[in-house]
Specification:
420 residues; alpha/beta; 5-stranded mixed beta sheet; 46% helix; binds ligand C2E; binds magnesium ion
Length: 420
């Protein structure tokens, strides 16, 4: 069967046919091709132009990889080729050249991951390996193609381990929540905290959130972690309140996928009600994303949480591409400026940098949102952020993520928080 849009093979047909060839032939390569920022292209030029680009890319691929190769479109902008192992890298560069000429006004890049399967190797895992190689250079713009190597396989194995043991890790309390202080700059006191998860595995030791969060998002299991952290946070609060001690509000990270994967409103309410916590004590933190397919759905989500009595914060502002649109499109209570955004400027050397930061800041404030700076590591940064009027700050300078009770033992004072 062929794909209606491009005329290339479908995933199923490709896997059937290529599987047979792998059983009988050697010296083959699987090439996984993916267009950079295809979603952005669709957004900018519309779906019709997006379809046109896919069709034309398929045309270019077919020009370079002749009839002797097998060509397929697996999904969206993912193309896969089974070909002779000679000249795959050169062919990738040729495709790239065609793409540059195809639209000189936009920078289009087709990344290639290459895997050389041995005879009789499984077609599905061979394609997975080519994809892994392709994914590995997503952020590396100096390379358009990359060969698979075993290090990538280890990554795949870790991903599998994370997915296989998530349930167990949750049940056995291997995933814990730490809290990082957030400081109000006008008073210098801790006004809130952010809940951050830590996974300690009996065999692997600490698994970094940089590893497990993207994996759980990719395989659409992230809501399970988020619901667990939420419950953990509410339990920690209840314990402290029961001891008659004070608390400050906490912000909890949610993935935007949670809105699709579960009834996140109900889950938040359940955790809050079960532990008898005031809604004012919980902030919902959502990360800025370039791949916002539906502004309306997220907006409904934000508004619903706000109407229920929760503050909603935007995480990592400035780390993506759509910062200004985010300010325009959504109503957040607080904007968290990403540390990369702040570090990207050498505030001592560049006047321009100061203007950019402070004008983003005043824009957010004009729209009624508070501004929080993340990743503050030294007194100099703090002084600058204070001078341009940030409301709050967070970072190692004030404290690393720590156990809940440790927040209240810090030298720095904690605001008089209401007992909820
Ligand atoms: P984030 O929400 O932007 O959290 C801030 C990250 O920056 C944390 O990393 C924190 O430890 C780190 N950080 C804080 N201050 C500093 C500093 O001064 N310097 C530097 N270099 N780093 C600092 P962490 O804990 O590794 O978390 C990484 C990301 O994982 C978080 O980024 C958040 O997006 C995600 N995450 C963590 N827990 C959860 C969770 O339960 N659910 C979801 N969906 N995401 C989570
Ligand atoms: Mg966060
Ligand atoms: Mg952040």
């Amino acid at each position: 069967m062929t794909d209606e849009l491009t005329g290339l093979l479908t995933r199923k047909t490709f896997q059937e046919r290529a599987g047979k060839i792998l059983n009988s032939e050697e010296n083959l390569a699987i090439v996984w091709l993916n267009l950079d920022n295809f979603k952005m292209y669709n957004k900018r030029f519309g779906f019709e132009k997006g379809d046109e680009l896919l069709k034309d890319t398929a045309g270019i691929i077919s020009t370079i990889y002749s009839e002797k190769s097998m060509r397929a479109r697996f999904s969206d902008d993912n193309f896969v080729i089974l070909t002779d192992w000679t000249s795959v890298e050169m062919n990738t560069e040729m495709i790239q050249q065609y793409l540059y000429e195809y639209r000189e006004d936009v920078s289009l890049r087709l990344r290639a991951g290459i895997y050389f399967p041995s005879k009789n190797e499984d077609i599905r895992s061979s394609c997975d390996r080519a994809k892994l190689a392709c994914d590995s250079i997503r952020k590396n713009h100096s390379m358009n193609s990359c060969m698979f190597h075993e290090g990538m396989s280890r990554k795949l194995a870790l991903q599998q381990y994370i997915l296989d043991t998530l349930g167990l890790a949750i049940n056995q309390n291997r995933i814990q929540v730490l809290y990082q202080p957030i400081v109000r700059l006008s008073t210098g006191k801790i006004c809130e905290t952010e809940a951050l998860t830590r996974w300690t595995d009996p065999e692997l030791g600490a698994i970094s959130p940089a590893e497990f969060i993207p994996t759980l998002e990719q395989y659409r299991e992230i809501h399970k972690l988020d619901i667990h952290s939420l419950n953990q946070v509410c339990k920690d609060y209840r314990t402290r309140i029961e001891q008659g001690l004070s608390v400050v509000p906490v912000s909890v990270n949610l993935s935007r996928l949670d809105f699709e994967l579960c009834n996140i409103f109900q889950e938040v309410e359940l955790a809050v009600m079960t532990n008898d916590i005031s809604r004012e004590m919980i902030r919902i933190e959502i990360t800025e994303s370039v791949n916002d397919d539906d502004v309306a759905i997220l907006n409904l989500g934000i508004e619903k949480f706000r109407a229920m009595g929760y503050e909603v914060w935007m995480d990592d502002f400035g780390s993506g591409y759509s910062s200004l649109n985010v300010l325009k499109d959504y109503n957040f209570d607080t904007i968290k400026f990403d540390m990369k955004f702040l570090r990207g400027f050498d505030i001592n050397k560049s006047e321009k940098a100061k203007y950019i930061i402070s004008s983003n800041l005043s824009m957010a404030r004009l729209m009624g949102m508070q501004a929080l700076a993340e990743g503050v590591e030294n007194a100099e940064q703090l002084e600058y952020l204070q001078s341009i009027g940030f409301d709050k700050a967070q970072g190692y300078y004030f404290g690393r993520p720590m156990k809940f009770e440790e927040i209240f033992m810090l030298e720095r004072e904690v605001e008089d928080a209401k007992n909820s």
